[in-house]
């Protein structure tokens, strides 16, 4: 959004779980990290031929090792040690600073985070108890200028020695949700009005994290991806009926947005009503990725092969048939349950109470000014880490 050379290559923006407050490195910082990576791989610095000769798994292990070394003190570096550095040309400055200066191209945007973004990073990096003393030391190293204010706002938990959950709260607020809110309001203040904000708040119902056991039952970074692309079956897992509806709803919003720039409007202009009817309504037009998903299931379950734009009509005819109840049980949708994907998602605006779409089961909801107190605090002290 800030680079003129690429601004014509896309028309709309979906930003999922961006660590907005993480500072980009200077050239010197990036060079040090690259040098450590090269050294770990047994290559001279700048020897690209040597680096490219290494197997992918060896490079991944070296990146993990250098990541842990760099992140040993400043815990914010845990989240994204490798990334862009500021060169003054392509990357002109820190993201929030550049946006505040109005140096961006206005595009319709969907933006949001998961509820527990940093469980993955905190528990992945600190596999043992983090004591109160260690917690306070991390805060002091990260923000010496605002240490007392942060420690007062996020008081250590005295009922348990382990402060990792508190670190999750601090870092999720500081790195993800609150700077995302700050960025969104900055863009609104710069005249970019077509913005929709969301909070993803559903953990896998299945053991989809493999050895990353600390993310089981948690809404970790990246949790929503399997629902966006409906890929649970790729890992031999199965969505619950509620998860099928949740996945269908986010696919519908995302594909509507790709078509029209509005998550509520399909590519033929069919607006979703807040209390819209279900599959049995002739007014329902499923005209996006959701339609294609239903079309495939219609074909699998019934042998019917609807053309593009005909899913609603075919579903209506089947519902009227003698076997409609069996069909609905097989596919797992009905008038009652399908309402969840019909919720109109208001734009993010102070005029509407700073609303966001709360993705959850059994049904999505609209929430207002989520984490207002915490985000107002971070807005007041700033997100930048002093050099």
UniProtKB/TrEMBL annotation:
InterPro entries: AB_hydrolase_fold, CarbesteraseB
Protein name, UniProt field: Carboxylesterase type B domain-containing protein
Gene3D superfamilies: alpha/beta hydrolase (3.40.50.1820)
Domain Carboxylesterase type B: 3-265
Domain of life: Eukaryota
Gene name of the encoded protein: 106061725
């Amino acid at each position: 959004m800030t680079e003129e050379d690429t601004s014509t290559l896309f028309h709309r923006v979906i930003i999922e779980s961006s660590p907005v407050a993480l500072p980009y490195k200077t050239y010197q910082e990036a060079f040090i990290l690259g040098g450590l990576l090269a050294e770990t791989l047994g290559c001279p610095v700048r020897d690209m031929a040597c680096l490219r000769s290494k197997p992918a798994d060896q490079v991944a292990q070296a990146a993990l090792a250098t990541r842990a070394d760099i992140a040993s003190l400043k815990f914010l570096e845990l989240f994204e040690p490798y990334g862009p550095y500021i060169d003054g040309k392509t990357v002109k400055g820190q993201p929030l600073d550049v946006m505040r200066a109005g140096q961006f191209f206005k595009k319709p945007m969907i933006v949001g985070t998961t509820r527990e973004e940093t469980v993955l990073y905190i528990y992945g990096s600190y596999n043992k108890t983090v004591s109160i003393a260690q917690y306070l030391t991390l805060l002091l190293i990260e923000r010496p200028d605002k240490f007392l204010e942060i420690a007062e706002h996020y008081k250590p938990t005295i009922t348990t020695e382990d402060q990792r959950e508190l670190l999750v709260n601090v870092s999720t607020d500081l790195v993800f949700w609150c700077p995302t809110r700050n960025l969104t309001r900055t863009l609104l203040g710069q005249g970019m009005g077509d913005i929709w904000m969301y909070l993803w708040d559903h953990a896998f119902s299945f053991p989809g994290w493999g050895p990353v056991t600390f993310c089981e039952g948690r809404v970790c970074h990246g949790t929503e991806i399997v629902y966006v692309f409906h890929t649970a079956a790729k890992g031999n897992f199965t969505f619950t009926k509620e998860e099928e509806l949740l996945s269908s709803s986010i696919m519908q919003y995302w594909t509507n947005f790709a078509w029209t720039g509005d998550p509520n409007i399909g590519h033929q202009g069919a607006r979703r009503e807040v209390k819209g009817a279900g599959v049995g309504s002739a007014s329902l037009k499923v005209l996006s990725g959701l339609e294609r998903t239903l079309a495939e299931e219609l074909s699998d379950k019934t042998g019917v092969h609807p053309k593009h734009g005909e899913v609603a009509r075919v579903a209506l005819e089947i519902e009227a048939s003698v076997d409609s109840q069996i069909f609905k049980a097989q596919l797992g949708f009905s008038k009652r349950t399908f309402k969840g994907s019909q919720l109109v998602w208001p734009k993010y605006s102070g005029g509407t109470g700073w609303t966001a779409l709360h993705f959850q089961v059994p049904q999505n909801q609209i929430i207002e000014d989520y984490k207002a107190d915490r985000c107002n605090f971070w807005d007041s002290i700033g997100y930048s880490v002093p050099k």
